Amino acid sequence: CAGYPGGRGSGSETGGRSEADIISTVEFNHTGELLATGDKGGRVVIFQREQESKHQPHRRGEYNVYSTFQSHEPEFDYLKSLEIEEKINKIRWLPQHNAAYFLLSTNDKTVKLWKVSERDKRPEGYNLKDEDGRLRDPSMITTLRVPVLRPMDLMVEATPRRVFANAHTYHINSISVNSDYETYMSADDLRINLWNFEITNQSFNIVDIKPANMEELTEVITAAEFHPHHCNTFVYSSSKGTIRLCDMRASALCDRHAKFFEEPEDPSNRSFFSEIISSISDVKFSHSGRYIMTRDYLTVKVWDLNMENRPIETYQVHDYLRSKLCSLYENDCIFDKFECVWNGSDSVIMTGSYNNFFRMFDRNTKRDVTLEASRENSKPRAILKPRKVCVGGKRRKDEISVDSLDFSKKILHTAWHPSENIIAVAATNNLYIFQDKVN
Amino acid sequence: GPKRQREQAPRSKVGVGKDTQEKETVIPERAEEAKLKAKYPNLGQKPGGSDFLMKRLQKGVFISPPFSWRLGRQKYFDSGDYNMAKAKMKNKQLPSAGPDKNLVTGDHIPTPQDLPQRKSSLVTSKLAG
Question: Segment Disordered: which positions (chain B) (predicted)?
Fold first, then answer.
């Protein structure tokens, strides 16, 4: 696919990079018109796709900055002596009902509902104040006038409409908007809460896996998502590589699952790393609602909701890392949480890797490709060249050896346009937007 | 008898039996596990919970309030804790800043120098141009 870097990163690749600019989440809205990014500094930047223009056809579909705001700020929990990071963990859009856009953004502790709206008119001709806002002396007013609305330069404002706070003891890893568009859920390591958008001082706890004695803790919740069509159904994944599907009609507290998805482990493959690399870092329903996709450290798996005992498809993301697990454990990379995404038709899945590589798997043709998101390799409108990692033996000219991979360049967050072949890839503090070439 | 060719590290270095070693040539994770255990012999002997969860605890993924400072997430200086820990440390050797430094020891004394600065004032994201 053709690509152009929408990269607006800071500094150079080698140094001078601000940690606050590290992108921590990327999400298209339901039409694909808007693309939101959240970063470690608690800021949200929203890009908007340019309208098609007959006069400049080659500029069709470029994303430009639409709005930017500070969503979360660092806080300090004095009671527990803990700093609460402002890093945005997830952004989820609400479907659009009127001219304004709404999104949920969350850090470790607090979810916020933001309204993003345009203002292109302003009232002029007030009686009691003049145009710069200074109050007029009432005794000097001799006539009355009716204020009128006059056009102004487009201004995009973001305002926080709801703050959903104090409901999570542990760190929020997921938020998911329900298909009823009235409720949403937030999940932390041990609990999942259900909220109504209108009510900020209450939430229902729907999953609680905290053991009575913390010493007995064996697994945590890693991700959760509502079914795209059935508002009573959701799934959550665990650090042990299992997925539970729950039905809220069954009981108020969904501690007992309706379905339990787990692939049996081959005991001869067991090692110290087995449980760590089986931990699921992301779970996503397909658009159809028939499948779920999970990402663990080395693979992406597709599960059929009707079959709990094993996935229907398993894709190797970077199997060559098996011989590097010791050092990946030492440098903590083995705990990296990669996300995964479906394309609009559920035929292709995409996930990130190291060295700014990301991978796509075509579920129908069973072909896969490795691409790289980097400034050196992406010129505007150039075609991305497939990359290859060589595992041992002779290295071909264009290949890169496993030992040369840069593990600090990880692509954890990617997004796919809901209906077109446009993808957004976050490489540390740079955002890349790639599109399919149009002939 | 016939000489056997070994591709793995010499047996004495890793300290595993012959059978396991032959399996290592098949499963890379086992070789990596042996490497890790050779470096950190105390691995797997932490109290309570699995090793994996203990490591997640240290990364601050979830924290039980009474243990928060030992897990390295405390962000302010507590003179009471400091003095208590200092008194305990008098007769012990300070743990070396080796590979174990990130694991739970309970003996590391936080000093004001260890603590990161509070965040500076907010700046616009570079993504916004």
Answer: 1-25, 91-129
Sequence-distant (≥ 6) Cβ neighbours of residue B74 within 8 angstroms: A81, A82, B68, B110
For residue B54, report the phi and psi dihedrals to the nearest 5 degrees: -65, -40
Distance between alpha carbon A17 and the CA centroid of its chain, in Å?
22
Residue of B nearest to A278 (CA): B52
Instruction: Write a three-state SS string for A65-99.
Output: EEEEEECCCCEEECCCCEEECCCCCEEEECCCCCC
Tell me the C-alpha distance between A384 and A319, whole Å: 23
Q: Which of A174, A220, A325 to mutate to test the interface with B (most CBs of B within 10 A)?
A: A325
Angstrom distance (rounded) from CA B94 to CA A14? 35
CB atoms within 10 A of CB A173: 25
Please answer yes or no on whether A80 and B63 come within 8 Å at the CB atom.
yes
Strands A422-427 and A413-416: antiparallel
Evaluate whether B76 touches B43 at the Cβ level (below 8 Å).
Answer: no
Show which of residues 224-243 on chain A sit within 8 Å of chain B, judged by CB atoms.
239
- Are the Cβ atoms of B128 and A23 closer than 8 angstroms? no
* Residue A186 Cα distances to A32, A178, A261, A303, angstroms: 24, 11, 21, 23
Q: Is B72 exposed, middle or buried (0-12, 13-18, 19+ CB in 10 A)?
A: middle
Q: In this structure, are residues A192 and A210 in contact, taking their beta carbons and an 8 Å threshold?
A: no
pLDDT grade for B69, boundaries at 50, 70 and 90: very low
Size of interface A-B (CB pairs under 8 A): 139
Q: How far apart are CA A357 and CA A425, in angstroms?
A: 10
Residue showing tokens 């806002």: A133
Q: Which of A61-75, A178-192, B22-36, B79-93 has the lowest mean pLDDT?
A: B79-93
CB contact set of A35 (below 8 Å; sequence gap of 6+): A26, A27, A28, A29, A46, A47, A48, A49, A63, A415, A424, A433
Instruction: Return the pLDDT at A216.
Output: 80
Q: Do A217 and B128 touch (CB under 8 A)?
A: no
Q: What is the rounded CA–CA span in Å between residue A19 and residue A85?
A: 12
Closest CA to A342 of A281, A227, A419: A419
In this structure, the strands spanning A282-285 and A291-295 are antiparallel
Q: Which residues contact A16 (CB under 8 A, 6 or more apart)?
A: A10
Block mean pLDDT (10 aa), chain A, length 439: 34 54 97 97 96 66 93 87 91 95 97 96 89 86 92 94 94 96 96 97 95 84 97 96 96 90 91 90 98 98 97 98 93 93 98 97 96 80 86 81 95 97 96 79
| Closest to A292 in 3D by CA, of A342, A255, A246, A336 | A342
Token pair 């660092």: residue: A74
